[in-house]
Amino acid sequence: MKRFAKQLWRWIYLTGAFMMMPAMALAAESDVGMNAGDTAFVLISAALVMFMTPGLALFYGGMVRRKNVLNMIMQSFIIIAIISIQWIFGGYSLVFGPDHAHIIGDLSWFGLNGVGLEPNPDYAATIPHQAFMIYQLMFAIITPALITGAFAERMRFPAFIAFTVLWSFLVYDPLAHWVWGVDGWLRNLGALDFAGGNVVHISSGVSGLVLALLLGKRQKNTSAPFLPHNMPMIVLGAGILWFGWFGFNAGSALGANGIAVNAFVTTNTSAAAAALSWVAIEWMRNGKPTVFGVVSGAVAGLVSITPAAGFVSAGSATIIGLIGGAMCYFAVSVVKTKLGYDDALDAFGIHGIGGMWGAIATGLFASKTVNPAGGNGLLFGNPAQLGIQLTSVAVTVMMAVAMTFIIAKLVAAFTPLRTSEDEEDVGMDISQHGEDAYPEAMAAAYMRYASKKEPLEVVPQREVNQRA
Fold first, then answer.
1. Number of domains in the chain
2. Same domain as 452, residue 387
């Protein structure tokens, strides 16, 4: 009896092992090329890039007047929610799904159908497909959030929501496919955009300028200065952006490797160089260096290095940052003033101009010694790369201008784009959201707005204190 039981157990064990062999083989096959270190690195980078959007909310929120701070924060946070759903149900598949005519992906990955935990060798062979997807989502989130700085303090919230959804489908998704998608036509042309110079910064900066021109200037723009209401908030936001940008650029290597290390180094180097060049020019022209200037310069340097981070050396990054800081300074302080457009928080002056310079600089400084997959730029014997980069910049600008104009007109056909004079006067926080970041300073204005008995105005803090 014992012998029979022993033989029976042995038969059960061997039969079970035999039946498990196909599953074990499949599991082993699915893990071929999977790298735990790369996966952890990309997930951490995705979290860093996600953190940048709340950082942007603080950065922009501190730059507006206090009656509009919650509106700026709300725009960034609601974009996280909107684009997270848009990306799952269409956006990701349109950008990275199977190509159609080198223009757009299809919807075969709608709802993440077919986007599993195994790697997709077309994009990232050592991490799960969903890890790549979630990392790319964070880029899709922050890009429309950058646009909000251009039309700050005057765009109605319903129009903003409609514009954001349409812009993501009609501008970001096609452009990202052109540059990053397999068989996208700019990618096939050889355009280099390591982490989003064209896709993120030029597209958002130019689109922001178009919206700012369509909406017109803020009230009293020529007679009352629009000074930042909270400088510590700006510095905190800029610090979060600098911190998160390491995930933005180094994470674009999609693995814990040498290219990621290089992108990390060049990102920090360019930001530092641009901060110094901006504040030096400001000091020479105005007699004093400012905190606002140094943080603006750092962001300009981060934007400028983004398309080149994985293709250039630290020395080249220094030059890119120095020039990028100077170019963005003059775009913000000189060109905008002379032309008279109201790019409220300088989305175009920093992201548009900085992104263009970075894309062009990639065509100058890219080197195969840094990244063999990227090729050489003009200064390393390949002038054709500069021509390709200039083409990609021109295409991105034309795409952003044309589609932003069309989308804005389409939205305006259904709902007004701009707030009324009364709504703008009392502030976006109260008129669009019914809440206030600083109730003690805005109580009188709210009462006037609610009763409609007096013209709307923002009551100075000293008047509030006197009445109290």
1. 2
2. no
pTM for the full model? 0.88
Angle at which helices 129-147 and 157-167 cross, to 10°:
140
Quick one: tokens of 386?
Answer: 């500069």
Question: Measured between alpha carbons, how far is 379 from 370 in angstroms, rounded to an integer?
Answer: 14
Q: Across residues 277-298, what is the average pLDDT?
A: 97
Residue predicted with more confidence, 4 or 124: 124
**Nearest CA-CA partner of 53 in 29, 28, 80:** 80
Q: DSSP letter at 112? A: G
Cβ proximity of 103 and 174 under 8 Å? yes
Q: Give the residues across from 99 on adjacent strands.
A: 105
Q: For 376-403, what is each residue's pLDDT tens digit?
A: 999 999 999 999 999 999 999 999 999 9
Range of the domain at 379: 36-118+128-412
Residues 89 and 193 in one domain: yes
Whether residue 407 is found in the same domain as residue 426: no
| Domain identity same for 152 and 277 | yes
Q: Which residue has the higher pLDDT, 448 or 69?
A: 69
What's 396's DSSP letter?
H
Q: Identify the residue whose tokens are 């014997």.
A: 381
Say whether both 404 and 428 belong to one domain: no
Domain membership of residue 146 (yes or no) is: yes
What tokens does 207 get?
A: 């689109």
pLDDT, tens digit (0-9, with 9 covering 90-100), for 291-336: 999 999 999 999 999 999 999 999 999 999 999 999 999 999 999 9
327 and 382 assigned to the same domain: yes
